[in-house]
């Protein structure tokens, strides 16, 4: 098979699909999503059977238990995917919204209207629910989607896409609305990344290797969902009880996520009062601690942290602890070692709170709240397709709005350029 | 010289410069811009002398008159550059603006705050005024700028950058605020394009070749300012006198710009009444006409247009004329041959106006106004750094706001993730 031609053909179909989708009303889109949700539930047996093939294959290959867990589909997870689609139907449709409108001295009215981006390529790994979540959000925002899942989930993804495309067919929508690249060759990804003028945006979701490959080879815009090396800074003017709760939540509530805290920074004037209770609490919860020399002085018997550790995204119950001179040193640490994802200060001081908000350059900056709250649902955006660590177009949780772009519209009555 | 190392060093300086710039108040930034404007005027003799070197070199190389004209600096043009900077000081500072803020059920307040993008690389050709315009806009939006001008303007650009950097020094701002890549090697551009994590955005301004090179090699986000193949569609329900004025303005007022009309589409039911007067007027203004068979039937003695012509950005007094069956055929033509830049309809029909606005997928869509109005000043954005033909981040004229990004800010009082 000529892979280049195959990918190109799929992408052209997607472009036609995007044109059809852009014309649908909210009601039509919601109806399609609702029917997809119902179909997924109805076909759950087939989906689980197909998923079993992937799982057997993964077991034969000796993939880790965690990976196999992420890969697994069961009744509950299929129910959740369907529920996710229904939640998207309930969100307001961003397409056609006029975000501003103003009058110019020459009498013309200029506005900005939200429109679909067009064709969005999603390149992702293992978790088959991404197939449904990404499709739901892209479709609701009027975009066609080209899906390229990982080879380890190929049977599950194919089965899911079959269900979704079947509804597309039944509703007489252009089939290019959902396209699935069903050949395993890596070259297919490379070809996708070159489709300037056909694919409008690529969203990679997966590990560092995948994201690097995509970034280095794409000729089309990419929105990355990269790692989170997140911090909480306990200021000398913090409510220490609140600080303890926030730090504990940020580390322990779900350590495997990108918005979990990896390094706790503590102002030296409160370190002695704060650290012993806090660190005991962490140890009791099974957290492995790594401390800077000053931390070790206050709380011995833990490992000394290395500079390299400060760059790490543990995604696990491991925490770096550093005592700093003041907020400036904390902010310098965050700028140096952080990944500009989610960073928090705990303080009662007004000026420091405002300075931290202004000067820390992260996708979400928190005063007196847990970094774990950096999330589309928590922020009230509805569902999210991920948390963008890029600055361009969308930064932080990406909801439906972020899957659209704007165009200028001009209502004139004969205006000319002088 | 190790070019890779040289570019990396410059970029790291720029990153430090960006940090310093992000902290400046609007007043401080405006003061710097104002002093730069004054310094440019004061140093105009040196600038013109240095510019003469470039012009002599260009003449020796036998560059075209048009190119030499674009390259030339004279008192008037220096005055205009200074005036441009002063205009930027008058624009509102987007940095720190909180664009929305809302309360969540758990009591935390979530908002979006505009912040600088960081380090912006501008890769441009010939016109030395870009050095000043781009720097002014980037600085006001709190961004450090890495400038890479064309080799044909190297002396002029160097002299201008000297003047600007001198003010940076005098005002004790970090020198990385303005960085100039002053080595001619093409490799330097290639290195710039790879600086992920240091350079945040690349804006190429120049011909198709430059933009293609940048897009194909960049690993960082790029905002293109690509070609404009723009249309005016004269509907059967148009006010034909208004249509004549708009079409004439769109083609003739300044044909060398990206928002000038390249193809005029006319509904067949008004073609016979509209075309003869209109086309005579165009010919009188020196426009070379190329017509479709139906146009030739009504107005013989002009060249027949080819399909290839419909894709062309003439940037000149040349116009394609096509008679279409109805608005649907006009919109299909625009989707097929256009570049999604600026497209207009002239009509008195309400439904068609709204459909055209909604369905034509261009950076600016006009009802009853000239495509030539697609411009930052005309739209009221103040100065513009160009007209983005990309969909991601910014589409259409890019002003100060588009040179910022947003981050989420959260004001809490102890909120945790449940």
Task: Characterize the structure shown.
The structure is a homodimer. By secondary structure, chain A is of the alpha/beta class. The first copy, chain A, has two domains: about 5-225, Aldehyde Dehydrogenase, Chain A, domain 1 (3-Layer(aba) Sandwich), CATH 3.40.605; about 230-380, Aldehyde Dehydrogenase, Chain A, domain 2, CATH 3.40.309.10. Helix content of chain A is about 45%, strand content about 20%. In chain A, the strands form four sheets. Chain A has a seven-stranded parallel beta sheet with strand order 10-9-11-8-7-12-13. A four-stranded parallel beta sheet of chain A has the order 5-4-3-6, with helices on both faces. In chain A, strands 1-2-16 form a three-stranded antiparallel beta sheet, with no helix packed on it. In chain A, α12 (about 295-300) links the parallel β9 and β10 (about 305). In chain A, α1 crosses α8 and α2 crosses α7. Chains A and B meet through β2, α10, α14, β13 and β16 of A and β2, α10, α14, β13 and β16 of B.
